[in-house]
Each structure stands twice: as structure tokens, then as C-alpha cells.
Amino acid sequence: MRYIRYAFLATLGFVLVSVAFANRGSVNLSLMPEAFERAIGLSYSIELPLFVVIFGAIISGLLIGFVWEWLREYKHRAEAARKTQEVQVLNRQLKREKRRNEAEAPSAQKDDVLALLDKAS
User: Fold this and answer.
1) pLDDT given for residue 99 in this prediction
2) SS (H, E, C) the chain
3) pLDDT at 121
4) Rg for the chain (alpha carbons), in Å?
5) Which of 31 and 72 is assigned the larger pLDDT?
6) pTM (two decimals)
7) I want to staple 32 with a disulfide (CB 3.0 to 4.6 A). Which of 36, 57, 87, 119 is the partner?
8) Phi-psi map region of 109: left, alpha, beta (phi>0 left; psi -120 to 50 alpha)
9) Which residues contact 53 (CB under 8 A, 6 or more apart)?
10) pLDDT above 70 covers what percent of the chain?
11) What is the pLDDT of residue 109?
């Protein structure tokens, strides 16, 4: 299994490097369209290789998707935490009841067993 993982990572690395070499041309990224830049008077642009833009878009898309999914699953995590807390409370109550029953009447439990055996015969 380890070799399959290494083969997959090597293949992925090769593909990413080949995409980077194939898209080395520079592109100009602007903050806003030219019409808005002229109207507002704010112009910001940067020149980057195309592969940086492509990889940046992929990474930012993944991050946005992870955050979106994390926020969407909040109600499920809260429900699971509430259920876990409820189970812990019930376990503590059960242990307390068992200790109390054992301390109150250890002989009564034996008598109950004998009574059940008498009814069965």
C-alpha cells in the first residue's frame, strides 16, 4: 500500500511540474475591471506566471470548500457532542445506582435470585 501511495504522489508531482513548465507565460491580474479602476481611481494589478494563478485558484477553491463544509456540518457535530454528554451523564447515574443498590441490600439480591429459582421449578 505504501508503494501505491508513493507512485500516486510521484505521478501527481510529475503532472504538476509539467503543467507548471507548460504554463510559464506571464499574465496580468487586476483587482477590478479597467472601467471601475478609472471611476474609483484605485488600480492594482500584478503580473504572475500562469501556473501560479492556476495553482492558486485550485488551492483557494479547496480551502473555500473545506470551510463551507465545516460550517455546514456544525449542527451534526453539535448533536454528536450533546449525545456524548448525555451518554456520560447516564453512565454516571447508572454507576451511582449500582453502588447504592449494592450498599443497601446485598442479601436482597440473593433472595431475589432464590425466589426466581423457586418460581421456575
Assistant:
1) 84
2) CHHHHHHHHHHHHHHHHHHHHHCCCEEEEECCCHHHHHHHCCCCEEEEEHHHHHHHHHHHHHHHHHHHHHHHCHHHHHHHHHHHHHHHHHHHHHHHHHHHHHHHCHHHHHHHHHHHHHHHC
3) 63
4) 33
5) 72
6) 0.61
7) 36
8) alpha
9) 27, 29
10) 88
11) 55
Domain boundaries, the chain: 2-72, 76-120
Q: What is the pLDDT of residues 71-80, one digit of tens each?
A: 999 999 999 9
Please, which residues have CB within 8 angstroms of residue 55's CB and are 6 or more apart in sequence?
16, 20
To the nearest 10 degrees (0 to 180), the angle between helices 50-72 and 74-104 is 40
Dist CA 76 CA 6 (whole Å): 35
Amino acid 97: pLDDT: 86
